[in-house]
Amino acid sequence: MPGRQLPFLSDEGLQATANVVARNEYGEPVDGAIAVERALTIYLDKQEIVTLMTLGNHPELLILGWLRNQRMIDDIEAIKAVQVDWETESVAIVTHAGVENLEEKLGRKTVTTGCGQGTVFGDLMADIDAIRLQAPRLKQSSIYALLQALNEYNEIYKNAGAVHGCALCSDASGIELFIEDVGRHNAVDAIAGHMWLEDMDGSDKLFYTTGRLTSEMVIKVALMQIPVLLSRSGITAMGLEIAQRVGVTLIARAKGRHFLVYHGGELIEYDAMPPAKPQSRSRDTRQAPD
Are 108 and 166 found together in one domain? Predict the structure, then answer.
């Protein structure tokens, strides 16, 4: 972006799947693909921080988003370089002037429910009380259109399974970016990295994930200033509590023409309701008196 001093980024994205031959239930050989899980150890100014498990298809975006969502670094211009080296399975992050209070941040670690066990450094709830999002009105027909469009994505999942996908969406542009990784926390971090790099505003966006809506997912989306979170999976009680505190519209179990709005239901314009459900038969099987 003009006027911004962005970090140097390597370009080391790898193929996310590998070809294999398996045998089916009849003992027949079947050509297929599997997701390739890779270790990537983060070194921040030469200090080892943590090892992430990732497909490795968007490593630089993943690292940028991880730094932002962990609140390690607030200003992208503070980063001098992000260089991925797959020979050593590591990424070297170099800053211009170091990271303030790094040891204190590293001293507070939370193991989350992220696939493969995600880790959050620092206070998980830090900055949440300062966030108040203005969620927009959302048409039911727009939700259905988005879900239909998403059927064209999930390429790695369709070929190999074993991954989660996340999408950055808007009413104006539809699906702007779709990223898959072995864990939903990696996919959301990579999208956060893209937004940070491009200096994108999240206030007119909608975030989709195939994974469950936990506290970690809601917090990350709120930090990205995105007011609507949509998932085909379920939610946790803490995820709902945080969504209520910060103003994230929370839509889960979204598949086909079904969805459940756990927070922000008053903001949905029900303009495309499916046909009425058939009434279920009464469970009372006692015969009425003659």
Answer: no
Identify the CATH number of the domain in which residue 104 sits: 3.10.20.10
pLDDT (tens, 9 = 90+) of the chain, 290 residues, equals: 458 999 999 999 999 999 999 998 899 999 999 999 999 999 999 999 999 999 999 999 999 999 999 889 999 999 999 999 999 999 999 999 999 888 877 776 555 545 444 555 556 566 787 889 998 999 999 999 999 999 888 778 777 777 889 999 998 889 999 999 998 899 999 999 999 999 999 999 999 999 999 998 999 999 999 999 999 999 999 999 999 999 999 999 999 999 999 999 999 999 999 988 777 554 544 444 43
Strand 228-231 and strand 249-255: the pairing is: parallel
Domain CATH for 220: 3.40.140.10
Residue 280 inside a domain? The answer is: no
Two structure tokens written together for 36:
């390739």
Structure tokens at 253: 């179990």
- Per the structure, the complete domain to which residue 111 belongs is given by 8-124
**Which residues lie closer than 8 Å to 225 by C-beta, 6 or more apart?**
131, 133, 201, 202, 203
By C-alpha distance, which of 73, 75, 98, 54 is closest to 190? Answer: 54
